[in-house]
Amino acid sequence: MSRVEQLASELSIQLRREAGGVAGGLEGVARSFLETKLAALRHDGSSSSAEQQEEAKKQLLFDIIDASIVDQVGLAGTTAVLQELVCMVERPEHGLRVGAQQEVLQHLLSRIQQRQMAYDGVITGTRKALAKSLAAEEKWEEAARQLQSIRFEQSQGALNIATVFPVYIWTTQLFLQAENLEQAVVSLNRAAAHIAQVSAVDQIMQYRFVQASVLSQTHKYIEAAIVYHNILRANTQDAAGQREILGQAINCAVLAAASSQKMRVLSGLHREQLASTLPSFRLMEKMVLKRLIRPTELEQFSQQLEKHQRELVAGGKITVLGSAVREHNIFVLSSLYTSIRFENLGRLLDIDTEEAELMCARMIAEGRMKGRIDQITGVITFEGAREVKEVAAAISMKRQGAEQAPPMHFRETVHARWDGRIVNLC
User: Fold this and answer.
1) Which of 124, 135, 258, 277 is geometrically suited to a Cys-Cys bond with 143, CB 3.0 to 4.6 A?
2) Radius of gyration over alpha carbons of the chain, in Å?
3) Hey, how many other C-beta atoms are within 10 angstroms of the C-beta on 267?
4) Residue 280 and residue 247 in contact, taking contact as beta carbons nearer than 8 Å
5) What is the percentage of the chain residues whose pLDDT exceeds 90?
6) Considering only CA atoms, which of 73, 76, 34 is closest in space to residue 57?
C-alpha cells in the first residue's frame, strides 16, 4: 500500500469515528490529523538538515492533498482537510519558506481546480493564500492573476458582497503595483458594480483611494482630484492623513487640463484650512487667482509628484505639469485679451507660433475655451471677454473727445475690473 492510500484510509476512518466527538467537528479532526502527521515527521527527521526537513514536509503535504480527494474520504471531509491545510501552510511556525508554500498551494489547485462547483470555497481560499505569498515576493502581476481567477459568480449560493468586494479592491491594488493599468481598470469596474451594496465605511474608503489612484494613473486628473477631495471631506483620517490626501488632490487638480471645472475644483481646495501649510499651495494659489506661471516656478512642485505624474506627453516634448501650466496661461490670457496674434501668444508662453495655435485649437475643440481662430491672419479671438470690450469702448469714447464722460458707475466698474486683472496677471 502506497503512502497516499495509507493516508486516505487513516483519514477516512478518523473522520467517520471521531467527527462527532471532537471539538469543531470535521474541521477539528482535520486539524488534529495534520498536526499529528507533521509532528511525527519532525520527530523522525530531527537529525536531518533544514532543507531535507522542508522537502520531506512538502512531500508529505503533497501526499495528504492526494489522499484527501479520494472518494472514500467524502466531499465534506475533503473540504475540511484542504481548508485546514491551506491555513496551516501559511503559518510561519511550520517552517515552510515562501517558495515551498507556493509549490504546495499550486499542487492543491492542480488537483481540484477542475471541480469548481464542489470545491469553490477551497479554491478561493487557496488562491488568496497564493496571492499573499506571491505578493510577499513582490510578484504583483502573478498575485493579481491568482485573485482575478477566482470565479465568484460561479459559486453556489448568494454572492456575499462583504467577501467579494475586498478581493476586487485587492486585485486592483496589485495590478496598480504591477503597472498594469488596463487590468486595474477592469478590476475596479468589477468593484464599482457592487459599491452601492457596501455599507462598511472602511471598505468604501479603500475603494475611493484605489479609484483615485486609478484615475490619476490613467491621467484623468480632474476626476481624481474630486475623489480625493471627497475622501478628505469624509473626515476619516488623522491630521497627517488629511495633509497627504489634500496634497494628492491639489497635485491632481493642478495637473488637470485647463477648464472652468478645474478652476472650481481648485477654488474648493484653496479654501481648505490645511491648504496653506502644503508646499503645493503657492502654485495652486496662482492658478486660483488666474496669474501667469513661469516655467522656472515648476521645479519645486514637480519634485513632489509621483512617477506617472512626471511622464512626458505630446510626443515626449513636455511633461504633464508643463502642458497643464501652458494651458492655464492660455486660459488666463483669454480673460485679459479680446484677441491676440499667435506670434505674440507664443512669445508670452515661451513656445513657437504653431504650437500655440495647436494648443488653442485643441482647447476650443474640447469645449474648454471659447474662441475663434483666423488662420489667414494668425489671430485668435477670445469670446466672453466682456470686460475687455468695455475697456476698449471707454478708450474709444475718450479718443473721440466725447463732450459727456461715460457714467461714473461705468468708469469705476471698468477701471476696477481692468486693474484687478492686471494685478492678478503679475
Assistant:
1) 135
2) 33
3) 13
4) yes
5) 55
6) 34
Residue among 80, 77, 39, 75 at smallest CA distance from 60: 39
Q: For residue 165, what pLDDT is reported? A: 95
377-to-46, 343, 373, 381, 382 alpha-carbon distances in Å = 91, 11, 9, 11, 15
pLDDT at 113 (0 to 100) = 84
Residues 6+ apart with CB under 8 A from 158: none
Q: Note whether 172 and 184 are within 8 A (CB).
A: yes
- Write the burial class of residue 92 (CB in 10 Å: 0-12 exposed, 13-18 middle, 19+ buried): exposed
| Arithmetic mean of pLDDT over the chain | 86
Cβ atoms of 159 and 175 closer than 8 Å: no
Compute the 3-state secondary structure of the chain and give helix, strand, coil in percent, each to the nearest 5: 70, 5, 25
Q: Among candidates 213, 224, 158, 220, which has minimal Cα distance to 187? A: 213
Q: Which of 311, 313, 265 is nearest to 287 (CA)?
A: 265
pLDDT tens-digit profile of 56-100?
999 999 999 999 998 888 888 899 999 999 999 888 776 688 899
**Contact at 8 Å (CB) between 130 and 102?**
yes
Indicate the burial class of 53 (C-beta count within 10 angstroms; 0-12, 13-18, 19 or more): middle
Q: Tell me the pTM.
A: 0.81
Q: In the prediction, which pLDDT does 115 show? A: 84
Q: Which helix (H) or strand (E) holds 188?
A: helix 181-192
pLDDT at 381: 94
Q: What single string gives the DSSP state of each residue in 54-95?
A: HHHHHHHHHHHHHHHTSTTT-HHHHHHHHHHHHHHHH-GGG-
pLDDT-derived band at 162, boundaries 50, 70, 90: confident
How far is Cα 338 from Cα 389, in angstroms, rounded to an integer?
7
Q: Which of residues 18 and 3 earns the better pLDDT score? A: 3
- HSE-up (13 A, CA, CB side) for residue 127: 23
d(CA 250, CA 221): 10
Are the beta carbons of 161 and 198 closer than 8 angstroms? yes
Task: Specify the amino acid at residue 104.
Answer: V
Contacts of residue 407, Cβ cutoff 8 Å, sequence gap at least 6? none
